[in-house]
């Protein structure tokens, strides 16, 4: 059974936008590693540790990255496509900024405490830097998702 055209259009645009966001986020993470920024702040290793403890066995380092990739490419980007028209802002970048700020607050208040790092990773003893870098991580993803989704939406509008 084929999906309605609007659902299929929304899905492929969301996935492509999510891939763009993941590329931006991944580039920032590689740059962090290569430049030696905040070497003690390793959220993917923290997630690997917590997943291993929850599963009762060791978890391969690729698993947190894979989960993040799937989450960013499919889940968050699809949710973004569903709420895109209701988000404040006139541009894709502005709508992505709103998504990123909401995501950053959620990550700071829920994910980091779950990883044993306290709200906004404040228990790490590194001052505001983990919170600031996590904001950069989330905004790298979300703003690029917004820009890509808006560009693909315009392309669809002019050709569809």
Written description of the protein model:
The protein is 75% helix and 0% strand. With 160 residues, it is mainly alpha-helical. It has a domain at 67-159. The two termini are 22 Å apart. The mean pLDDT is 93.
Measured by DSSP, the beta-strand proportion falls in: under 5%
Which term fits the overall shape? globular
Find the structural class using helix and strand composition.
Answer: mainly alpha
Report the helical percentage.
over 70%
Uncertain stretches of 5 or more adjacent residues: none
What's the N-to-C terminus distance?
22 Å
Mean pLDDT: 93
Q: Over all CA atoms, what is the radius of gyration?
A: 17 Å
Number of strands: 0
Largest sheet: none
Secondary-structure element series: HHHHH
Count, helices: 5
Task: State the gist of this model.
The protein has a domain at 67-159.
List the helices and strands and how they pair.
Blueprint: H1 5-35, H2 43-55, H3 62-83, H4 92-114, H5 129-159
Helix pairs in contact: 1-3, 1-5, 3-5, 4-5
Task: List the keywords.
about 160 residues; mainly alpha
């Amino acid at each position: 059974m084929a999906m309605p055209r609007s659902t299929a259009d929304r899905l492929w645009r969301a996935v492509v936008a999510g891939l763009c966001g993941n590329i931006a986020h991944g580039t920032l993470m590689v740059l962090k590693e290569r430049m030696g920024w905040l070497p003690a702040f390793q959220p993917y290793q923290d997630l690997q540790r917590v997943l291993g403890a929850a599963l009762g066995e060791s978890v391969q380092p690729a698993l947190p990255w894979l989960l993040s990739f799937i989450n960013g490419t499919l889940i968050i980007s699809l949710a973004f496509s569903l709420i895109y028209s209701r988000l404040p802002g006139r541009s894709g970048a502005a709508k992505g900024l709103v998504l990123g700020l909401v995501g950053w607050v959620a990550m700071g208040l829920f994910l980091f405490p779950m990883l044993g790092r306290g709200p906004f990773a404040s228990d790490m003893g590194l001052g505001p830097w983990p919170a600031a870098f996590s904001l950069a991580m989330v905004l790298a993803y979300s703003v690029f998702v917004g820009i890509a989704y808006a560009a693909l939406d315009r392309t669809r509008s002019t050709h569809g």
